[in-house]
Prior knowledge:
The structure holds 2 protein chains of 2 kinds.
Chain A: E1 13-20, H1 27-36, E2 48-57, E3 60-69, H2 73-79, E4 88-94, H3 98-115, E5 122-128, H4 140-150, E6 153-156, H5 165-177, H6 180-188
Parallel strand pairs in A: 1-3, 1-4, 4-5, 5-6
Antiparallel strand pairs in A: 2-3
Chain B: E1 2-6, H1 22-27, E2 32-36, H2 47-63, E3 70-74, E4 81-88, E5 92-101, H3 112-121, E6 135-146, H4 155-164, H5 172-179, E7 196-210, H6 213-221, E8 229-236, H7 238-241, H8 251-265, H9 271-276, H10 286-297, H11 323-333, H12 339-358, H13 378-394, H14 405-408, H15 417-431, H16 439-455, H17 461-468, E9 473-475, H18 478-481, H19 485-491, E10 498-500, H20 502-505, H21 510-517, H22 532-544, H23 548-567, H24 576-592, H25 604-634, H26 639-658, E11 674-675, H27 681-685, H28 693-696, E12 714-723, E13 742-752, E14 755-765
Parallel strand pairs in B: 2-3
Antiparallel strand pairs in B: 1-2, 3-4, 4-5, 5-14, 6-7, 6-12, 7-8, 8-11, 9-10, 12-13, 13-14
Helix pairs in contact in B: 3-6, 8-23, 8-25, 11-23, 12-22, 13-22, 24-25, 25-26
Amino acid sequence: MNSSSSNQSEFDYLFKLLLIGDSGVGKSSLLLSFTSNTFEDLSPTIGVDFKVKIVTVGGKKLKLAIWDTAGQERFRTLTSSYYRGAQGVIMVYDVTRRDTFTNLSDIWAKEIDLYSTNQDCIKMLVGNKVDKESERVVTKKEGIEFARKYGCLFLECSAKTRVNVEQCFEELVLKILDTPSLLAEGSAGTKKNIFNQKPPQADASAGSCC
Amino acid sequence: MEYYFQTNCAAKSSEWTDELHELQLMFGVKEFMVIAPATASGVVLDVPEASKLLSSVAIALSNCGSIWPAFVPVHDPTREAFFGIQNMGTIFTRRFDADRIRSQVPIKLMHLEGLHQLFLSKFGLYATDFSTNFLKVKFLMRLTYITPPFDGEDDAQVREHEVSQSPGKKDIQTYIKTIWDDDYPWSNWYSAEDPLKGFELTAIWSEHTVDDSLEMEELENASVFEAEKWLLSPVLELNMTDDPMGHFIGFSSQLRLLVKALDASFEVKFIEDLITDGNPASVPSPSVLDRVLKGLFHDGQIPDRQHDHGIGGTIKGAPLGSLFAQFCLNALWFGNCNIHAIAVLWIEFVREVRWCWEESQPLPRTMTNGRIDLSSCLIHQKLQMLAICIGKKGVKRDVNGNSSVSDVDKDPPIMTEDMHEERLQAVEAFGDEFSFSALLEREILSSDMSAFKAANPDAVFEDFIRWHSPGDWESVENEERSSASESVRMKGDWPPRGRLSARMSDHGNSWRKIWDESPSLPASEQKPLLDPIREGEKILHYLETLRPCMLVEQMISSAFKASLDTLSQTSYGDLKQMKLKIEQLYKTISTSLKPLRGNIVADRAELIGDLVRLCAVFEHVEKLLIFAASIRHKLADATRLCEAIFSDFYNYYLPKMGTGSSNICYDKVFKSKQLIKAHEREVIISLFPHPTANQSWRKVLSMGNLLNGHEPLTREIIFLAHDGATDDQYGRNVPRGSPGEVCTHRMYVCGTSNDLQVALSVTSWD
């Protein structure tokens, strides 16, 4: 429990984020685009991948631990454990493939309900590959409607052109910073003394901003 | 000499309004004044002295133009006797007189007829030639009934009980009291006093004219259904709601003891220390211990479903009905939950668990579905893991099994929270330096590939991808053959035409690399991902060496959760406020217990203080729930009334619930009076079952106005006599604005067969 206590001063909060969605929608590319500003064709993720990025949002220095999961069915039971303690979950679909969108409600939203241990956890819907506008089959309106129904944030982006990539993570993090119970957990991650903090308001709700 | 004012200026439309002061009700006055001596008795014992005092007060009041009535208490205080006088302008004077008989009421005065005659006789005192036809006598009545003690079972059973017990030996009331909550979920653990002792039914006959005394006799036999208005008010058991210093025994009281145990547990390093230097007197006898363990391990059925309340799932505790949750609930009541008793129970508990492990017996009350419930506490996770290990230990490996694709699927790795934690920490430690891809998943992929190769000796990488990651296979026949492709493929059009996705066919693709490196090996011959013997022993080691504070911490979470889960199974109908309170409590518990998820406690005093406050909040909700259950049980057929009374109680109780501290003084008295609608009367009548033969011989019924054979608790009557002669010589002196009639006589009678209170107001022309 006391490991890595030496880097206490490096950041104010540590948040755990999770990327989920069908195989091939571009989760790993999105993460790579965010963490190292590059885009390349990646091998399909095996199980899970993990990246860390330190960002400054709202004057706070944040350490983001982002878990990138494999979309293949075989890995789904394995990745279930990564939902634990995540303050934010990003559901990614490919705007040029309808099945990746319908699977969100059929599979992925249910996975969150099933495995997330954090009831206030912020959900974000991201439609990727908007650079392929000509091949688009899922409209922006459909995305907005889904987000409203499931109470999540929503953005469309392109990991390739980096359009809206930063914003995806920034909006999610801002919402987490806005949620007292998540904030309390995030600061617990810094191994500060969490017991002196007053428990957050019992009725603090995640809600939706859509 | 001391005097005070009491006013009630609001105009009253009814004679029976609840807010009326006693004197207002007795004498039909509004504002009034009482002059009472500041002595111990508070009354003027001497009658002439009282009269003298009253006259001087009357003069003083008339001199200053006051028309307020003045009263002087006289005689013995128990008689509640008053003299009073009121100047009403220049013409009228009203005199008041009240007295009370506390025993041996004359039979005549027990009946309406006699009381009516008493009223008429009062006219004679004032030398006027009133004849009854000159007067209109009006009559109002209020009857208050109290329900007989409730029986939890139906009548037949109670009667049966009465027969089996020789009559009179056991008080039926006590019998009834002990069983009211038998069917409620908490009764497995404790028995609560019924917070609702009964109901008071008030039946009101509004004003009507009475011609003679015979009519009064008829009124005495009139059915309560003839009353214009029915009102119902609950009678509470005050110990329940106004419990100044924790006499209530329930989950909350035991949780408080568990918190105390937590505080003590920080001092101790090993569970065993609590046994050797413990206080043996605080630990129940071995026979009790045996019974508890038997109940836990041998009578246990696996819970059909984990009773996870939607919100309850956020409390990090074992699910209700599971082995550890049952352990916690038992511990609450075992030796009053002191730390030594907990230690004894735990050591025996772990011993039983080890027995199951050694003997490969399934762990009772432990459901896994092949996965670990990470939202529960660690001990529950460990027990789940152990149950899985016991299951795997017993399974013999079938080496010559027929392999096919379906055999490739192996169980996902099963890990408890601490194993995940270890892994995540390892990953995080490497995360910054390497491009990390989880080793465990890589191992699983490789094992899948080996098994696939063994099952399909001629398979190539593409075949594996089509099965394992169908999204990475781009079929060229897709557009041409549509849905037929599946069956065609089965018939032998093999291999299917198509290609791997770009990312899967990249040079240096990691999947291909693993494929090339994986040997052909059936799943059954591969080294299992989980070694059940090793993992099982690790779990027992954990349980056997658990530090006391780590144990009690997890017990706290599980006990709070299981207690509330148990309580929330109570059926209380559709009482929304109750539902809301329970949901709020789940949230409060969930947030308050978060600090327990670590094992470092920085400010112990603050933590314990918070938990004690949480127990107080729990207690309020627990009591409210018991009230809800009780009222719902009694008024199940009158939903509207049930909800209205609960709502009144809720609003009365809410301010007390707000604060966690119990020593604030509240002097507000609970009042709830609900007007009963016509269709609800039948339900209310059913609260007054006919007394059984045994009950009825005990009472001598003498008053009349029976309701299903029950006498009223009190019968209040008001007689009014109006002077109807508007054209008499005094008529012109009637002050302007008053009605043509003057109420000359008013008599208030409140009584039972052995207590009679009479108050008389007489207006006279002086």
